[in-house]
Amino acid sequence: MAYYHKRKKSDIVVIDMPLLDTRREKDLTGTFLSDIVLQVLSFVAENERKNIKQRQTEGIAAAKARGVKFGRPSVSLPDNFGEACERWKKGELSVAKAANICGMSKSTFYDRAKKAE
Fold first, then answer.
1. Whether residue 12 is found in the same domain as residue 39
2. What is the percent of the chain with per-residue pLDDT over 70, rounded to a whole number?
3. Which of 30, 35, 49, 93 is the most exposed place for a label (fewest CB within 10 A)?
């Protein structure tokens, strides 16, 4: 990240950190200091992101160990799903009509029919 502004020939201005204002002091010392500070901040940010991901992974594992279920809860099939599915397989109903009878979308009906096989 620190060298990105150099490739783009842009300046970085952090209002509450004048040391990072790359518009000023373009001499060797000023550039060197701002580069070092940017490198340190980039390193700290990258390590913090790794720590967050690690804590997230540990939290998910702990929740799964406690039996927590992730994702949307599954919805039970309507009582008439089996009959509508059989009629659809026989060609008596289109997917749209069978899904409409069951009160679900065509894609959900088709997905559930595939899983029921």
1. yes
2. 83
3. 49
